[in-house]
Amino acid sequence: MAALTPRSYAAAVDVLVSGDRDLAAIVDRYGAPKLLSRPPGFPSLVYIIFEQQVSLASAKATFDKVSMLLPIFDENSYLKLSDIALQNAGVSRQKIRYTRLVAEAILAGGLPIRSLGRKDDATVRELLTAITGVGNWTADVYLMLALRRPDLWPVGDLALVKAAAIVKGVKGKPDKNWLESLGERYRPYRSVATGIFWKYYLNS
């Protein structure tokens, strides 16, 4: 379960752009994306849940407010926060429930979050998605950002869907089958290809 490093990420970008002129055009225009990463653990998983279906700026603002409420950002401290305190920080009722379930799963031993880095992608996804509120998108993004796995293709990611459709000249919203087929071109570096499409989305 080798994690990407800045060096291996840059090498993977070179491989991808050499085989796909559309990705090459993105890199030529906007520059090569850098490896995005977050520390593995409970705070990053909470942050990703906050990012579900909202803007990155909104999720960051909420995460920063919650962080200020905690002496240490761990599952024990988080569960001691009241619903009112979390709501005042911008966390929706639904996401309060989801993040509490994550914290409880860690404490109960159902989610061994500190050892996920030693497990394969499928096992990590299975453990994460067993928790209500943690779907495939959340699991994929955690694998990509926190565990820095090289071959994730989050087909439910709106930025990826929009960017891929525009770059590849698809009118309207492409279906899941089309996106999965496109992703097959980029194995074993689909996470890196996703980063290139994200680069396009954020700059176009």
TrEMBL record:
SMART domains: ENDO3c. This is DNA-3-methyladenine glycosylase II. CDD domains: ENDO3c (cd00056). It catalyses: Hydrolysis of alkylated DNA, releasing 3-methyladenine, 3-methylguanine, 7-methylguanine and 7-methyladenine. Keywords: DNA damage, DNA repair. PANTHER family: DNA-3-METHYLADENINE GLYCOSYLASE (PTHR43003:SF5). Residues 57-201 form the HhH-GPD domain. Its EC number is 3.2.2.21. InterPro entries: Alkylbase_DNA_Glycosylase/TA (IPR051912), DNA_glycosylase (IPR011257), HhH-GPD_domain (IPR003265). Transmembrane segments: none annotated. Pfam families: HhH-GPD. It is an enzyme of class 3 (hydrolase). It comes from Congregibacter brevis.
